[in-house]
Automatic annotation (TrEMBL):
Region of interest (Disordered), residue spans: 1-31
Family: Belongs to the glycosyl hydrolase 15 family.
Name the record gives this protein: Glucan 1,4-alpha-glucosidase
Domain DUF7997 intervals: 1-253
Stretches with biased composition (Basic and acidic residues): 1-12
The organism's place on the tree of life at top rank: Archaea
Pfam families: DUF7997
InterPro entries linked: 6-hairpin_glycosidase_sf (IPR008928), 6hp_glycosidase-like_sf (IPR012341), DUF7997 (IPR058310)
């Protein structure tokens, strides 16, 4: 997104009650991608690239497509439009109904290229439509307006022209627009001018040709092309390249091959299907499972790391940005995928291995992981929680990220994921966890999961309990000898020989220490101990992480032949806690129903007076209830049935057809009370939670399928 676009959006949406001006929203429309490049196809047909964090290339920042008949152009974003995915793929079909014709588009992103195939069917003048007039197909063409920002620049940009392609370049990034049928006309234009930027009203683009500005034909990233139809079909492609990696001739050959190999809709669909994991026909909630895998693939870089969501606010006007990898979200997603793969017969071995490889590669020398990294290569990204890198106290550090990564790596090791350096990474991480565990058995003061406060959080303790438990279960054979130089990792040299036993001991310490956060008056665990030593007893959906953590801890006792490690008192407290949090955070209006993030949450409310509903929190509630149901069932506790029913109720809100799931099958981060979706869309974390919860309910809790629901 360029500043010009942000200012244009600001003019269009300033003062809106549920719109934050200056953003590029993706709450409508659909994405195509799956191998790095990420292209948004708006519900009106506009194309925009969102893949910079995944590939380092900016590509398209604005576009419009129109149908020209003679000198008259009908822009398709002004027509009545419907849109869908074709099957389980990321092939997007968009149908535009104009007065003169129906234009059916198919958009697909394949690696670094994006193809748009448009077929036109002209209205019959004799069909009763008095506005329809006969059209000579020879007089029609597809009009494509595209603005590129190579290297993220909208200045100092140039163009090179060819018969069937135009190359837009700055320095490293060279972007191509090409047509399978050549160009009937091609021109450029300058970006929005200073007077236009300062005007009160937004500027509609593209402008008419200006013969007095000859330089605009070559010195900008904006092009307007007339593309002839051939038997009613026109196909255009964009290709993003690094000039040092792909020379001009190779780029043009690739474009030619794309047109040749994908000259019909079936070929496009086949190519799109190859980019995603197959979902068995027998999978439960198959539409939901396919949608979740599609989203998680779209958000993934070739490295395996994922952005949290498409970055709708790159200027940090209303948020801190979303186009980065957080190790909390990413490792939680990896863990959910690992657990769901076997249950749903999904073949994701390469996903598991890529995640593990990148976690090994990005670990810091002290055993922790940084706040945010660029997913394309794991390099440090802008953030505000890098205390372990900077001088000074470690308060601005998110210890739960390290806990989440350790839990995943331990499970991955047990599942047979074998990557170089995995054991050494676990040793260093164990030493790092120990250094951030206070003598009382709870983690140190640090930032919380929501990154908006500091303290000693129940959620952070939950991630430590889960990490220690999983390492205690699956860490046999991991020794300090895995480190090339134990003295180089603070605290590693003093670790005992039996690291798995040490992790089990630590897990019991954390388990016992959680009693310090129990609030009997509310029947729940406190969200945190504050900096002054007080107890913050607000309800917070992040504390729902205690359910899965206790299930991991319980498996320690089962592995030792003790029949489970969670005692009856703790089971009672967990049931009370989950019920209290779910009931206390539940929020319902005429348009939506789900869980708010936490009591007193004031973020991105706009004109709304109350807290907004979050899909992450709602999905987390469903998963926590399912995890707790499985734990209760393992203890032959009859409350398992009711908890499984609660899980299904909450899952329904975020499932296709639920009030928190868009018709696109996407889960936005948040909702206003009037049903308006907001913030990053789709957000990867709730999609992974939804996937895991479907798998858990089907695989481990089928006996409760017919149990009465809470509404019954």
């Amino acid at each position: 997104m360029q500043l010009r676009d942000a200012l244009d959006d600001y003019k269009r949406h300033a003062g809106g009650g549920t719109r934050f001006p200056g953003e590029r929203r993706t709450v409508s429309g659909r994405f195509s991608g799956g191998d790095g490049r990420l292209v948004h196809v708006g519900d009106d047909g506009e194309l925009r690239d969102f893949g910079y964090p995944l590939t380092g290339r900016t590509g398209l920042v604005r576009s419009r497509i129109g149908l020209a008949v003679g000198d008259e152009v009908t822009w398709l974003d002004e027509a009545d439009t419907t849109q869908r995915y074709v099957g389980d793929t990321a092939l997007v079909e968009t149908v535009h109904e104009t007065p003169r014709a129906t234009v059916t588009r198919h958009d697909v992103t394949l690696g670094d290229a994006h193809l748009t195939r448009a077929s036109v069917e002209f209205a019959d003048a004799d069909d009763g439509d008095t506005d329809a007039t006969p059209v000579d197909p020879a007089d029609a063409s597809l009009v494509v307006y595209a603005r590129f920002a190579p290297d993220g620049r909208d200045d100092r940009v140039g163009q090179l022209r060819f018969d069937d392609a135009v190359e837009v370049y700055h320095a490293d990034e060279h972007d191509f627009l090409a047509s399978a049928t050549g160009f009937a006309d091609l021109r450029g234009q300058l970006p929005t001018t200073f007077p236009e930027l300062l005007a009160d009203d937004p500027t509609d683009l593209p402008r008419d040709r200006d013969g007095d500005r000859y330089e605009e034909e070559r010195l900008s990233g904006e092009v307007i092309a007339d593309v002839p139809f051939d038997d009613g079909v026109a196909t255009v492609a964009t290709l993003l390249t690094d000039g040092a990696e792909t020379d001009r001739e190779a780029a043009r050959e690739r474009l030619d091959d794309l047109f040749t190999d994908h000259d019909n809709v079936d070929a496009l669909a086949d190519a799109a299907a190859d980019a995603l994991p197959a979902v068995p026909e027998s999978a439960p909630a198959r539409e939901s499972v396919a949608a979740d895998l599609r989203v998680l693939s779209l958000l993934s870089a070739p490295s395996g790391l994922r952005i949290a969501g498409p970055d709708f606010d790159p200027y940090y006007e209303h948020s801190g940005g979303y186009g980065y990898t957080w190790f909390r979200d990413d490792a939680e997603i990896s863990g959910f995928l690992l657990g769901a793969a076997n249950a749903l017969d999904l073949h994701l071995d390469d996903w598991h291995a890529r995640s593990a490889e990148m976690y090994v590669a990005t670990q810091r020398p002290d055993g922790s992981w940084p706040h945010r990294v660029w997913p394309r290569d794991g390099a440090l990204a802008p953030g505000w929680a890098n205390a372990r890198i900077e001088d000074g106290p470690d308060v601005d550090y998110q210890a739960d990220q390290t806990g989440s990564v350790v839990a995943y790596l331990a499970r991955a090791r047990a599942a047979g994921v074998d990557v170089e350096g995995l054991d050494a990474t676990l040793v260093a991480a164990l030493a790092g966890l120990d250094r951030t565990l206070e003598p009382d058995g709870r983690p140190v003061v640090c930032q919380n999961a929501w990154e908006d406060s500091a303290g000693r959080f129940a959620h952070t303790a939950a991630t430590f309990l889960e990490a220690y438990s999983e390492l205690g279960r699956h860490g046999e054979g991991v020794t300090v000898d895995a480190l090339a130089d134990p003295d180089a990792v603070p605290g590693a040299a003093s670790l005992p020989d039996d690291l798995a036993a040490h992790a089990r001991d630590r897990a019991r310490e954390v388990y016992d220490a959680l009693d310090d956060l129990w609030v009997p008056e509310r029947g729940c665990y406190a969200v945190r101990e504050t900096l002054d030593g007080g107890i913050d007893d607000r309800l917070d959906s992040a504390t729902l992480g205690l359910a899965a953590a206790h299930r991991s801890f319980d498996a320690l006792g089962a592995a030792d032949g003790e029949g489970g490690a969670v005692d009856d008192e703790r089971l009672d407290r967990l049931v009370s806690h989950v019920e209290t949090v779910v009931d206390g955070l539940s929020h319902e209006t005429d348009d939506i129903a789900g869980l708010i993030r936490y009591e007193g949450d004031g973020w991105r409310r706009a004109d709304q007076l109350s807290e907004k509903v979050w899909t992450v929190s709602t999905a987390w509630g469903a998963n926590a209830c399912a995890e707790l149901a499985a734990l209760l069932a393992a203890h032959d506790d009859p409350r398992a049935a009711e908890m499984a029913a609660r899980a299904r109720d909450l899952l329904a809100h975020v499932s296709p057809g639920g009030t928190l799931c868009e018709p696109t099958t996407y889960l936005p981060e948040q909702y206003f009370d009037d049903g308006t979706a907001d913030s990053a869309t789709p957000l990867g974390w709730p999609h992974a939670i939804r996937l895991a919860t479907v798998a858990l309910l089907d695989d481990e809790l089928p006996q409760f399928t017919d149990a009465p629901t809470a509404d019954d």
